[in-house]
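Budget justification note: compute hours in this period were largely spent on complex prediction jobs such as the one shown. Inputs:
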Amino acid sequence: MNAAGIILSNLNDCTLSRLTEQRTVAAIPFACRYRLVDFVLSGMVNAGLQNISIVANYNYRSLAEHIGCGKDWDLARPWGGIRFLSPYQTSGSGDTPLHAHRMETLKSIAAYLREYKEEFVVLSDCTDICSIRLADVIRAHRNKDADLTLLTTPCPPSFTAKFPVLMMRADSDGKVLDMVKSTGYHPEYPQRFLSLFVFRTRYLNRVLDQALAYNHRSLTDDVLMKQTGEKKYYAYCHEGYAAFLSGFLDYYHHSIELTRNEAARQSLLFNRENPVYTSLQHTPPALYKEGAEVYDSLIADDCIIEGKVENSILFPGVRITRHATVRNSVLFAGTYVGQGSTLNCVVSDEEVVVSDHSQLSGSKHLPYYISRGCNV
Amino acid sequence: MIQKECVAMILAGGQGSRLCPLTEETAKPAVGFGGKYLIIDFTLSNCVNSGIDTVGVLTQYRHFSLHEHLGDGRPWGLDKQRGGLRILPPYQKNGESCWYKGTANAIYQNKHFIDRYAPRYVLILSGDHIYRMDYSKMLSAHKKNNAVCTVATIMVPLSEAGRFGICNTREDGSIYEFEEKPKVPKNNQASMGIYIFNIDTLYRYLDIDEADPHSANDFGRNVIPNLLYCGERLYAYPFLGYWKDVGTIQSLWEANMELLQKVPGMNLWDSHSPIGSRGRVCPPQWIGNRAKIENSLVSEGCVVNGEVIGSVLSRGVTVEEGATVSCSVLLEGVHVGRGAAVYDAIVDCDTKVPEFTQVGRPQAGKENLTVMDGAEAHGSERLVVI
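Corresponding output:
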């Protein structure tokens, strides 16, 4: 596939604040054994992309550790493969600013983008989780001879987001007619943007040249919304399951949804056509001891379970000891639940220890979050 | 030249006929164990955890899946420029094919590989045992005893001693007699098939063995007895931990079941000397609302809606609603249909157990295990009752 990939790892990390205290959005653990970046990265790999860059501005230790040399995605290549783009100081540049916006980030790597030989650039962030066949999107982009293709999904009337997202309407051919920014459903703009662009590389470079010349700050406000009519923008509508993680509550809901919604699980995790790759770990299988009662749950390897688990997601190395009960909860790697404890609607970050006979309960609308390494 | 103190050679070419039909399509060291491992992973991990980073793996029989698993040795950190893992199958020389005639001959044919690293010691290992051992301690004992050859030994029940090579030792641990599979064993100190040789001694006796047309070219039957006959300093190194020769269906099943004991036989959870294996991308395991899992090991990619009791499930196993799996080992990709029951059995990779059928008998025990081998590719299922 004649396309290069760029993944923005820090976008929107303020709205997922609790989970991004010590990691980038891309490195947020999701669905038992993955991190958010795995979904878009695997989509790119499955489409045959061989030159992928991850832009990481700060907080990227766990992301860098996760990706390693890229071998587990078959991206440790002598030519191309995967690389990290992080800000650095050049002589005389003074302090390099940290970029929180898409355009700022792109401007900072503009010189690098000019060297791309690929005809197309796929640009994505990590907060929209879905299983798409990216090869089909790129093919449609080429067939339509588009400047830009935006991945979209039909927006349900119940939709709300923590920050404004792009909504658009397109004609029957998919050509984008108009777009707005909105935090909720907008009847005249029925398609919601899934934060994945396919650019014609030449067009992207021209956009960046103009952005540098006119000091554009926002890709959506200064470029996309202004050029919608004159340039060939197309929408590629994804009809299947898509999870949008605009905030902590979204994160919790979509996690638990995987234990309740068979279609979501099949499309995202058990999809043979579009498998999700992640870093491989040397861990023993999960051990279910006497007293284990597990229902409707996704369990990672290396868990040891002696208690009750229902509608929950257990990451690797979680210990559920005797007479403990865990319901509607997401327990990150290494969480230890002491004897006789009861957890309901809890999200525990890595290496949390819940002492014996604790009762921890949040609610569906206010899950109880325990930060990394805490003893409660 | 990069010199290494000790080079390990793993003998992994055996046919494993006593593990048939599991070894019909794959070499014994590449048979699955403990859900996520192959048998050879334990020996390889032991090497790495003992600080030995130069390992030759001698393969011969049905080695495709074994080679695929070993690859460049990366899962064990053996993908190295200086040393690392090398796969050593037999090959043609000067128009004649040179199959490995026996364990000693296999090493003899690969002297060129050992010579690259000019080691002082060569560690000979088998690729078909489940155990955790620090070979560096054995090497220290070898040096301390000033031995030319050290044989690792383990106490086995006297009733079974006749199956092994038995070492008769003096008080200081030196060996005065080695009996391969004796009818009347004098003691129960069995050879584990693990030897450390001084390299010059090894080469000298391999040359002698090679020159003898009547030799079976086997370490236990020929080389070790010959060393003793010539009065060399041989020492036993008694090993005290868990060790299991998984050369038979019964012992393979038993070793799997021992993982589930309160104090497991092989401890897979020891983070100080982890067991490495080649990973593969699988989704997490999904445990449905009709599932009941007790006292079992379940691996990634499994989908369980039925009852799983006291069993070991490898990657990608499906247990449908109403199905029961009890005291069994299900290898990769096994599918147990609705209402089916599997008791006291080993089910080979990718076998489909049809709906509402029964495999094995409840509480059959290790003497009456059932092996089911019926990859769809073969067209027909086959039950082998041992």
